[in-house]
């Protein structure tokens, strides 16, 4: 399996772990300095985001992936994933969104880790 395919699988794992609320699984995909940028512009550290997932601030129910584009440059990579997501966040009702995630990754000790992600709609 090539590097692009491995990274595409990590994106799918990322969503599966969020739906399952698998905090340890998600943590294993993130670098120590991971940052998430929400659609609102709010920046969260991995710890803050994972706390929100654990305590029910963020609830993800499904994700269907429409497009995943990966570009690898040595030990760094970028990924743009477009997924149709059903979620309830910040106490709001369950809804459907077309979310685009723009991710950066870096290879650490032979494993790809997400270093940042930025969410928007498409």
From TrEMBL:
<keyword id="KW-0413">Isomerase</keyword>
<dbReference type="InterPro" id="IPR027843">
    <property type="entry name" value="DUF4440"/>
</dbReference>
<dbReference type="GO" id="GO:0016853">
    <property type="term" value="F:isomerase activity"/>
</dbReference>
<feature type="domain" description="DUF4440">
    <location>
        <begin position="7"/>
        <end position="113"/>
    </location>
</feature>
<dbReference type="Pfam" id="PF14534">
    <property type="entry name" value="DUF4440"/>
</dbReference>
<protein>
    <submittedName>
        <fullName>Ketosteroid isomerase homolog</fullName>
    </submittedName>
</protein>
<dbReference type="InterPro" id="IPR032710">
    <property type="entry name" value="NTF2-like_dom_sf"/>
</dbReference>
């Amino acid at each position: 399996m090539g590097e692009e395919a491995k990274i595409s699988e990590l994106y799918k794992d990322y969503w599966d772990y969020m739906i399952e609320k698998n905090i340890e699984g998600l943590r294993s995909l993130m670098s120590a300095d991971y940052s998430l940028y929400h659609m609102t512009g709010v920046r969260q550290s991995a710890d803050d985001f994972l706390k929100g997932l654990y305590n029910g601030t963020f609830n993800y129910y499904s994700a269907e992936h429409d497009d995943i584009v990966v570009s690898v440059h040595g030990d760094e990579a970028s990924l743009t994933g477009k997924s149709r997501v059903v979620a309830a966040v910040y106490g709001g009702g369950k809804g459907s969104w077309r979310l685009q995630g723009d991710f950066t990754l870096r290879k650490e000790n032979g494993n790809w880790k997400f270093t940042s992600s930025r969410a928007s709609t498409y």
